[in-house]
Amino acid sequence: MIPLIAIVGRPNVGKSTLFNRLTRSRDALVADRAGITRDRIYGLAHIHDRPVMIVDTGGLGDFETDDREVADLVSRQSLHAIQEADAVLWLVDGRAGLTATDESLAGELRPLARDLFLVVNKCDSGNTDMLSAEFHALGAANGPHPVSAQRGDGIAELMDAVMSTLPGATTEDIPETHPGLRVSVIGRPNVGKSTLINRMIGDERMLTFDQPGTTRDAVAVPFERQGKQYVLIDTAGVRRRSRIEDPVEKFSTIKSLRAMEEAQIVIAVIDAREALTEQDLNLVGLTVELGKPLIIAVNKWDGLEQEQRLRIRDQIDRKLAFADYACIHYISALHGSGVGDIFDTINLIGRSLEVRISPSQLTDILANAVQQHQPPMIRGRRIKLRYAHLGGHDPIRIIIHGNQTQHVPDSYRRYLAGYFRRQLKLTGIPILIQFKYGENPYRGKTKPSEKKKTRRRPHAKGKN
Fold first, then answer.
1. 373 phi and psi, to 5 degrees?
2. Backbone angles phi, psi at 86, to 5 degrees
3. Distance (Å, rounded) from C-alpha 346 to C-alpha 295?
4. pLDDT in tens, 416-450
């Protein structure tokens, strides 16, 4: 087992900065504002050539009264991380000095943590002993350790002390970078993305609250189900660009869009109790442009009147016709109805992603498609599609060669994409059709071995 180190402390003491420093990543969102991190974020670090799992947590205490419910949920996530960790780094702010909240946390953390290390962050003014002196009053067995997470000062000494207390881990324990299918869950704020992920993994892993903007980071959650590995990526809700003014929300949106690009499968969550919005269409459209396999989860389906259900089905049929390859599920993430069927679709898409197609197979399918439905005439001449081959696999791109292919209308392109998808039995996967026109460069050329041998003209026999 890989040792787990949890980073905890008050809001805005530099937990996410230390997490990024140790994991050598930018996975945790960092801003000079309290309460940015809310969910647990896990990352792999290599300290002294040993693999270690680091978990960043939300702030404990010091929340505004209006955010008390959110604060309780964040604290619950942090306490869960403390209980499962082999060592806990308790960060305090050296610039702010010892606070009443720090003194209160000391009594809570000591009985919970196995090995508690008191870390005095923001000691970058040179006089580290003076900045950390007053924190001896907290009575921590390990520390205080003065560090600067931003500059890296004191980190090596801190990790020397931490690693000496941790159980060993071998390279065999290191998880793969992509241990399973990467599935990104996207949608507008407050449509139920985090609730859906919690329901799918069977644990309160993500913070959920009836308030838009609860999730701020793109959080990857690896887990196993029935012997198969998956990575679910919860993302922040994406609003229209014109409505985004907060810099933190801008960074959250960027991370959400990046998670879409890195995913193998995208689940777009739509709120069934609201009309299909322009932003829903934009997010689905972006998924189509990226060429990603798509599952549309119409959430909050339970309790709707039959008239409302008919209305939303009609909207989806009309407005999402451009994503006709998508698999649609009508679910309730809160109660779990229909959620299990999503895994069946994910597995079908996973098998479709592994399909291998030969050029001869594609050319035969193309010939059958053309026979059933001929391309249109252009200036009295028929468009001729001759052969096809695979041009890419993520997304699946089929390149078709022929004459006058630059004039193939979009409607016929969509027909071919649908025909290929049905014949290849691909589920939830888009097929991108690309046409090449011009003469076959190999036409009329023969291999050297196939060249006709010149017959030597027999000599005429001379007369005697």
1. -150, 105
2. -85, -25
3. 8
4. 999 999 999 988 899 999 998 765 554 555 555 54
The radius of gyration of the chain's CA atoms, rounded to the nearest angstrom, is: 30
Query: Confidence band (pLDDT; 50, 70, 90) for 295?
Result: very high
Q: Is the dihedral of CA 170, 175, 176, 177 positive or negative?
A: negative
For the whole model, what pTM was predicted?
0.64
Q: Which tokens sit at 206? A: 């993500």
Q: State the pairing for strand pair 142-146/181-187.
A: unpaired
